[in-house]
Design goal:
The protein has 163 residues and is α/β, with parallel strands linked by helices. It contains 6 helices and 4 strands, in the order H-E-H-E-H-H-H-E-E-H. Helix 2 links the parallel strand 1 and strand 2. Helix 2 packs across helix 6.
Length: 163
């Protein structure tokens, strides 16, 4: 609620959510969102990136016509410390070898900066951006019913934790 109020009170404003093309492997498991029945780092990551796009779409719908845009971005593969501590030997090896082909953090930030500042996006909301242009997310990321359900479940979880 605080973010919604702040955005509505200070248009024009933009919300940029970092996601990933890893969302394409994600599935929203509403029966086990907290992964209580079995945790897989890769599965959790993909689901969280799918959730980021669903959240962004629902936020865009809720803020429609209020001078606030909400878009999700895919920064690409970026050389960071991502997954180094938790990764198994195969993943660590892949990240080390793959680093040669990854973007620098500065390059990885370009699409986020573009989404936050490009004049041509002043009225674009609910979009998914990659390489500083619009991209089509997976069909599961365009499911309005799942987005609304995720929003409602998120509100319940936040209320419970504030408890």
């Amino acid at each position: 609620p605080l973010l919604l109020e702040r955005g509505r009170d200070s248009p024009p404003s933009r919300v940029v959510t970092v996601s990933s093309d890893a969302h394409r492997a994600g599935r929203m498991d509403f029966e086990d969102l907290q992964a209580d029945r079995g945790y897989s780092g890769i599965r959790a990551y993909a689901q969280s990136k799918l959730a980021n796009i669903l959240f962004t779409g629902e936020l865009a719908r809720r803020l429609s016509g209020r001078g606030v845009t909400a878009n999700a971005v895919h920064p690409g593969g970026v050389r960071t410390g991502f997954a180094r501590e938790d990764a198994g030997i195969v993943m660590r090896l892949g990240l080390t070898v793959g680093a040669v082909f990854m973007k620098s953090p500065e390059q990885g930030a370009r699409t986020s900066v573009y989404a936050a500042s490009a004049a041509e996006l002043a009225n674009v909301t609910g979009a998914y951006l990659a390489k500083s242009r619009r991209a089509r997310p997976h069909q599961r990321a365009r499911d309005d019913a799942a987005a609304a359900r995720l929003w409602a479940v998120s509100e319940e979880l936040v209320a419970r934790s504030a408890g």
